Amino acid sequence: MRTLMRNVLAATLACMAMAVQAVPVELGHNGRPVPLAELADTKDPLRMYGANGQYSINIPVSKRESVKTAVLHLEGTNSISLMRERSQLAVRLNNKVVAQITLSPSQPEFAVDIKLPASDFVSGYNKLTFAASQHYTLQCEDPSAPELWSEINGQKSVLNMQTELKPLNPNLSDFETLIDPKLWAARKLNVLTPAQGSMDDERLGWGALVAQGVNLRMQYLPLPIHHVVAAPATSNAGRVLPGLDQTRLADADNVLIGTAQELAQYLNPAITQSISDSFLAVYPLDADPRRFVLIVSGRNPAEVRRAATAFAWLRFAFPQQAATLIKDLDPAKLKDYAAKGRVIEQGAYPFKDLGFVSRTVKGMGAESIELELNMAPDLHVAEDAMVEVELNFAYGAKMRSDSVLNIFLNGRFESAIALDNDQGGFFQRKRVKIPARDFQPGYNKITFSAKMIPLITGNCVLFQTDNLQLSILDDSTLRMPKSFHFTLLPDLKRFAQTAFPFSTQADGSRVAVVLGGYDSQTVGAAWSLIGKVAQKKTVPLWNTQITLNQPESERNVVLVGPRNALNAKLFEGAPWQPGEAWKVSYPAIEHDAEPRAERAWFTRFRAWAFGDLRTSLFAGKPEQTGMTLATGLNQQLVTMQYRSPLDSDYSAIAFTAENPAALWNGVSTLLEPDVWESMDGDVSVWLPGDAKPVTQFSGKRYEAGSIGMMGRLGYYYSFRPWLWVTLSIVLLIALAFLTRKLIRRFHQRQHAHVAEEKLDA
Amino acid sequence: MVERLVPRSNRALLYTWFVLVALMTWLLLSVNTDRSAQFWFAYSLLAIMFLLRKIGWHEKFRAFFLLTAAFLSLRYVVWRTTETIGFNGWPDYATAILLYVAEIYGITVALIGIFVNINPLRRKPVPLPADTALWPTVDVYIPSYNEPEDMLEITVRAAVNIRYPKDKLRVHLLDDGGTVQKRTQANPEAAAEAQLRHETLIATCERLGAHYQTRERNEHAKAGNINSAFHKTDGDLVLILDADHVPTVDFLENTVGFFLVDPKLFLVQTPHFFINPDPIEKNLQMFGRIPSENEMFYSVIQHGLDFWNSAFFCGSAAVLRRQCLAEVGGIQGTSITEDAETALELHGRGYHSVYLGIPMISGLQPETFTGFVVQRVRWAQGMVQIFLLKNPLFMQGLSVWQRICYFSSSFFWFFGYARVVFMLVPLAYLLFGLQIYNATMTDFLAYGLPHVIGVMLVSDFLFGKVRWAFVSELYELMQSFFSLPGIIKVLKNPRAPTFLVTPKGEHLEEDFISKLSGPFYLVYSLLVVGMVVGIWRFIALPEERSIVLVTMGWNTFNLILMNAAVGALFERRQRRSAPRMPANVAAELVLFGSGETLPCVIDDMSANGARLIVPEEKIPKARLSDQALLAVFNPALGRYTHVSVKIQNERSLDAGQVGMGIVFTDEHSIQRAEVVALVFGDSQRWQEYRQSRAQRVSIFQSLAFLSLLGSKYAFEHYRLIAREWFGRIWAVACQAGRRLRHGLLQWRNTFVSWVRS
């Protein structure tokens, strides 16, 4: 069940992410039509096959809100072979039928508006099921006949829900629902600091920790962090924050950070007095009780930092009270690369360690079983290395011999297991190999899709489908081959997938975030970005340096700021250096295909032997057009990755724009998953309003990580096998020559005067 | 150490060698390339090896050839160690480790074998100076325990025949069967038998001009016997001969010279040459058709050891320097292989050894498999004792190469473990489905098969002429079921084993099945069951077919070996006490009565008789007597010998020839000595015979040869079992029939009486 929920959550989050492509996340889904394709995380129509076709999607509803109205606009098509008298589409909400539609062959296109009962929605995930009963005859029939189908247009069918936030009476234990990715309503979070004048690196660090705590609770969804400078109230009206001007805060959730002394002017004195250590408290916002304000404080900066760190780390329910003091904090000492469901290095990983729970699926249209795993971002494996999945699974007896278990990696078919044992049974350590190079850095999903067919089918035959069952057990293992932490950079795609190389150290102590200024837009952009990195890492980077000054040595550097505000020295080695003309190069022709003659076997052999097939990754770069432009950035956001000018063993990544406003706009939209995942090359340029950034590769590659001398040799010889063969033979010859020489000398020394016969073994 | 190996100027060469080895190792460990690259790499090296072999350059590029194979094996070890051992459950894991250890054992033995045999030293004898005054005095020791007197007489007679100044040669029969302890033992019959033996042998020695030696008590077995005599004699050198090891006349001429040119020499060892088949050869009828099992050791390995000054004492057919032996207190007795232990001790003191590859004794091997096992288990236990109690790797005074060589000699005897594992491991998968080798077929083709082919090529190159493929496997397999428990016993208590004398000269009156067959039946049955289950697996588990096929192939190979083993356990009768050895000597047979002279060729000879090939047309129609005189040039004596013979039988052969069986009839000591010199005294004859057997065949021919012989005699084996069982059933049935008949008769008589009454 947990797995199911997790899968559903992932799918929902993903589709919600797709939904925000058109509308920024802060606006939410509330009151706006959301295509079912987005909720179902598919671009295909929602198809239902057979006599009992079904399709389900999940509709998230946060505990913080109540559904006022929900209207489902449904458009679809059915087969013209269906028999009107017996064919219908039932719409169920949480297993309760809310509508029925006749599927008529004479009117195969249908469009209806269905009002979903608001009272039937519950907090969490609501299952919306389309169940099609499809028949072509009144007599007995083949229930798997191919003409039994209908489909719902996922783009034109939309759900329009009106929700309303409930008034809050929050406790710290409610935080998992207060910051909730399921929220249908608009999401916005302000982080308030007391006064502009008091902003410094320490306060930047507090905000960064809070931003990470918030983003980690949002799981995969972005939540840009607005930095707001707290302003004193003109009248002391509030119960909690009588001294804070709340006019700008009413449409958002808020976090107020500062020492007790700094916050005293805003807080109820009783609250101020209770700050006797690291302090966390949550209250309804005086100006809007549907929103909360989190107070992160302490008597001194160290206590505030501890409170912020605690907020970032906490995974269990806080105490069921509005405020608490944190006496001590001992963050976990994790290994580098540690992350949720992470495959770090060579070895066997039981499924359960990756978060998988044993699961059984049933029937002809059985749901898929998914294994999610998080590959270390910089794993390098040999060309032909295989990841072995050793499945412990069972399936039912008397299934048709063409039943199979298809295995997909990230949606791509990789392998299959024939479920052709007539007696079914339990199978241990069934090996399936998947090329290790097919795995992408970071999130991967292995899908086990069972296609189980009854043994006896046909017209007028009673179908037995209860035997169509398959279980995959959590003691199955995934075996990672020999691998190194080694890759080539810059690679913004890898950064987008995994936040590499900023996510590798356990505590973020090798990361420095350098800001171009203390203005709220730059600060908000930096906090949002570091929150995103924490999301990718799945644990907070609680030792990261965030500063306006020169970063400490031996750190990967994140530069965030307007182009003219950042230290020009930090751009040394970047593909483009602010203030200078920008050298641009891009392919002269897209998809410049060249005809290739069929090659003879010896040409192919030579190609294999000398590695040109293997080096295709680096070869075939299309002709580039280069130009140098003396121009500014206007409203564009530029992201660049390059070797750190401060330390050649580290990387730098810069997020820069013409001014703070453009930077904030750019970053807050760049965080949208669809935009974020589109980064590539070493430079990405994004203009607000565009669906995806423009990317290019124009800098120099450099190596990140260590492959070791031996690994490097193996890596190199994989590309040049004949060089390896030749070198080995030369060494063997040299060794044999020396051995012979030594043997002769030994002979001369030991047996100089021995009369010998000719050797004749 | 380094200084001893190479002069200072050569040290750089040695260091460079080490650097290259390190580089190769480095290269080996950096093999994280893809499988296809590995595949091509391995088969490229093999192709070069095959090419060198084909064009006959593998001897010219011997070091390269051997190192390439070693490289392939080491590469396999690296891969095997790092990638193929996985945890698939405790039973699987334990079996996988057992197999891994067995493989590592095999590869270690193979690699050290390459080192040992990298440059065999094949010496020529060092001539003795013309002035015999310079020749050292020699005591010949013939230790005996329970060997028959006629066997001892031949050996003593041959020892006396040795060409050496009589004043410098003393032959001693060291009789442990006639000690005071034996003669006064509680059992009066045994005591009388010992007394009789004592007196008979004293008389024999006096008659032959030898010295009879015995002692008070039978302490420390053979070593104690020799040491007892050692203190009673004073020759400069000691020649030790087993009771059945009949020396040729030139033994001392060929060996003593080495002692004169090297004052630090303590040992000259010569090959043990056997004139009868061992039980496996005999039962599979292989004797004379393939090289004997011991040829590999005496024709190749000892030469390799000699190069590294590590040739060791094999208990007999060796000359030792008294002074050196005295320094270590005589023959050592910590282990039951006192010979190797003594050599180890003296090598540790910086003395040298020599191996001369000329066969100059002819001995007997055990007739029965039981005797063979007694002998081999003693060797295995003794060498393992040395491994444990005087481990050459840690013993002081040995050079690095001597440590390696002695390690090789003692470590080899753990083969029992490897053989049993290799035999049973396929069953672990076939019968129980255990996963013990985490690799795909492609992996195995890229790493495993090249290693196997490389080892076979090297084996063929080094030993092909003296050891056919898979013969080692058969012999080791047949010993392993008994040597393994023996080794385990030593491991538990290294000082426990006691010296058991190898039975020799036994007569087998009829065919029988060895009493040691039990374990073979069990394993054979398991292998057959494994094949059946394997076929079921192949049909029922389609996804496992490739691994099933490989495992069944392995199991089939084991079955072929086991078949041959079962065939060899069918003990064939052996009535002839004196084995005949081929000869090709021109002679003349002078017939008594008519005085006709028949030119003939001696086709084979034994201590008691010979077979002559005579042209049919020369044979007179009527013969007056079956007595004759055989005139033949005796190479051992350098003159003609005339021997009285009796014609036993005649048989027509092809090409107009007649085979004529004769027996030697002379009783006189001088003439018996002539016969012994004729039959056993010519080392050239043994040499030629050895060379005639040294022929190379392909691996497949060898496998086919063993398969055919194995099947044939395994069938005989089972037929005998069936006959015995059938016989028992028939006997029971007959007995029941007789009882029934008897009952019926009684009933009839009763009935008749009743009717009559």
Describe what this molecule looks like in 3D.
The complex is a heterodimer of chains A (761) and B (757). With 761 residues, chain A is α+β, with helices and mostly antiparallel strands. Helices cover 21% and strands 32% of the residues of chain A. In chain A, a hairpin with a 2-residue loop joins strand 5 and strand 6. In chain A, helix 9 packs parallel to helix 11 and helix 13 (708-719) crosses helix 14 (721-750). Residues 1-25 and 611-620 of chain A have low confidence and may be disordered. With 757 residues, chain B is an alpha/beta fold. Helices cover 54% and strands 14% of the residues of chain B. Chain B has 24 helices and 18 strands. In chain B, the strands form 4 sheets. Chain B has a 7-stranded mixed β-sheet, with helices on both faces. Chain B is globular. Classes of the chains: A alpha+beta (761), B alpha/beta (757). Chains A and B meet through helix 13 and helix 14 of A and helix 2, helix 3, helix 4, helix 12 and helix 18 of B.
What is the strand and helix layout of this fold?
The complex is a heterodimer of chains A (761) and B (757).
Chain A lengths: L1 H18 L13 E3 H5 L5 E4 L2 E10 L3 E14 L9 E6 L2 E7 L6 E8 L7 E10 L15 E4 L5 E8 L9 H4 L10 E5 L7 H17 L7 E5 L23 E7 H4 L5 H6 L3 E8 L2 E11 L2 H13 L9 E4 L15 E2 L3 E4 L8 E4 L6 E7 L3 E3 L4 E10 L8 E6 L2 E7 L6 E11 L6 E10 L17 E4 L4 E4 L2 E7 L2 H7 L12 E5 L4 H18 L7 E3 L8 E7 L19 E6 L13 H10 L13 E6 L7 E7 L7 E7 L2 H11 L2 H4 L6 E4 L7 E3 L5 E5 L1 H12 L1 H30 L11
Helix pairs in contact in A: 4-7, 4-9, 9-11, 13-14
Chain B lengths: L1 H4 L5 H19 L5 H20 L7 H22 L6 H27 L21 E7 L4 H13 L7 E7 L4 H4 L4 H21 L2 E3 L7 H10 L6 E4 L5 E2 L3 H11 L3 E5 L3 E2 L4 H5 L11 H13 L10 E4 H6 L10 H11 L3 E4 L5 E3 L5 H21 L10 H12 L3 H18 L8 H23 L7 H22 L19 E2 L4 H23 L4 H24 L1 E2 L9 E11 L5 E9 L3 E7 L11 E8 L4 E15 L3 E8 L4 H12 L2 H11 L5 H58 L1
Parallel strand pairs in B: 1-2, 1-4, 2-3, 6-9, 7-10
Antiparallel strand pairs in B: 4-8, 5-10, 6-8, 11-12, 13-14, 13-16, 14-15, 15-18, 16-17, 17-18
